[in-house]
Amino acid sequence: MYDQRYRLGTSNGKPSCDLVGNLSTMQANHYFQAFYDPDLINYGKLNFLFYSKILRASQTQPSHTTRIDVPPLFLQMAKKIGNKTIQSNSCKSNQFQSEHADFVYEQSNDLLTIIPQITKIP
Q1: What is the mean pLDDT of the chain?
Q2: pLDDT of residue 91
Q3: What top-level branch of life does the organism fall under (predicted)?
Q4: pLDDT (tens digit per residue) in 29-46
Q5: pTM above 0.90, yes or no
Q6: How far is CA 109 from CA 1, 60, 95, in A?
Q7: pLDDT score of 78
Q8: Distance of CA 113 to the CA centre of its chain
């Protein structure tokens, strides 16, 4: 996605130092333009307002944003504000397919077939 010039940001429900540390270990920090964790946007990943605050901080329209997440609740939160959604089933602990997912992937390589379709979602 980075190579195709998508503007990438990332967030999780934990302090930003955890995410930045994990991405540093994977040597992936340079792919992300911004980090939107609870300590950076002053709001926890509790409800749809979390994603609303990220949109405000990134100055991005909901329809131009795609969220990749695992739990159905977070996909529902993203969908509620108008984001496109992709559910990651790559971790074995996720057994719940969400009705709020526009796309679902099982392995990271599966994203390669999803990315070209993202802009085709009505």
Answers
A1: 83
A2: 65
A3: Archaea
A4: 888 888 888 888 999 888
A5: no
A6: 12, 26, 19
A7: 92
A8: 17
Question: Rounded to whole angstroms, how far apart are CA atoms 68 and 10?
Answer: 9
Spatial distance between the Cα atoms of 47 and 80, rounded to a whole number of angstroms: 10
Is residue 114 within 8 Å of residue 86, measured between CB atoms? yes
Residues ≥6 apart with Cβ < 8 Å to 2: 8, 31
Helical pair 72-80 and 48-58, crossing angle rounded to 10 deg? 50
Rounded distance, CA 28 to CA 26, Å? 5
Measured CA to CA, the distance from residue 63 to residue 47 in angstroms comes to 18
Which tokens belong to 4?
């195709």
Question: How far is 10 from 20, CA to CA, in rounded Å?
Answer: 10
**pLDDT tens-digit readout, 73-99:** 989 999 999 999 999 887 655 567 789
Report the 10 Å Cβ neighbour count for 59.
6
